[in-house]
Specification:
The protein has about 260 residues and is mainly α. It has six helices and two strands, in the order αααββααα. The protein has a domain of about 180 residues: Outer membrane efflux proteins (OEP) (Up-down Bundle), CATH 1.20.1600.10.
Length: about 260
């Protein structure tokens, strides 16, 4: 009785890799095995086709990124802010200049050479206009250096934008190529996983018929599990690369897809 119990336990333990692999395989088939590579692209991209034929060319993606990248948008806003500061400095000296006006009416007038019949000559009647200028000599002398300093700051911001654009282009190209490579690797891993599955199923049949050693059956099971792990790992890598591509470009995946004819 003890020997039978031991045999049953050992049999169940030996079947654990097969049971695990079977559950994984059923789950993958239920989700459309080999048809989707992540939430970011399940609607727009087909894993069975080369991504290079589905995505826009790199230069087109970079042109979109130049207008929609959050990094470049922030830098452009900084440049516009510095341009507005320059315009403000050009007219700062006018803060001490002002005009005044008023209207008064009365009946007292200066009688000179019989001008009492002309109300406009009255000191109490009519409109009054005034001009006031209070300009600091320091502000006046420092106006031009301050403007030059602000212009230099603007040029620095523009140069910084060019640097950011180059960094964006380099990083975008790296992600673009990594996405294409990871998708090709995923397709190879899927083929390898299918071969490993056939080998595992064959080994499982032979093991049940006592035509294969337990160690060989265990090796086939491990190879299949490793192949499946590679597929899932590369599937995640493709999805992450696509997410990075969308983030850097600043547009949704639908705008990065090549129009299909």
């Amino acid at each position: 009785m003890q020997a039978i119990y031991t045999y049953i336990v050992l049999t169940v333990i030996r079947q654990l890799p097969f049971i695990f692999a079977l559950f994984v395989f059923v789950g993958v088939m239920a989700n459309g095995f080999g048809q989707s590579i992540g939430q970011v692209d399940t609607v727009y991209l087909d894993i069975d086709k080369d991504l290079a034929s589905q995505l826009l060319p790199f230069e087109s993606i970079y042109e979109l990124a130049q207008f929609h990248s959050p990094v470049l948008k922030q830098q452009n806003a900084d440049i516009e802010s510095k341009a507005a500061a320059i315009q403000s400095l050009k007219w700062t000296f006018l803060s001490g200049v002002g005009l005044t006006s008023g209207l008064t009416r009365g009946n007292q007038s200066v009688v000179t050479n019989d001008n009492s019949n002309y109300p406009l000559l009255s000191l109490s009647n009519g409109y009054r206009f005034g001009f006031n200028a209070n300009i600091s000599v320091g502000d006046l002398l420092s106006r031009r250096p301050n403007i030059r300093q602000a212009q230099a700051t603007q040029k620095f911001a523009m140069a910084r934008r060019d640097v950011l654009a180059q960094e964006l282009r380099r990083e975008l190209y790296r992600i673009y190529q990594a996405t294409l490579l990871s998708q090709r690797m995923l397709r190879l891993y899927i083929e390898g996983q299918q071969v490993a599955l056939v080998a595992f199923q064959t080994a499982e049949i032979n093991w049940k018929e006592n035509r294969l050693a337990a160690s060989d059956y265990s090796s086939a099971s491990q190879l299949y599990t490793q192949a499946q792990a590679k597929v899932e790992g590369e599937r995640v890598a493709v999805s992450m690369n696509l997410f990075d591509l969308v983030t850097l470009a600043g547009v949704p995946m639908a705008q990065l897809q090549r129009l299909q004819r």
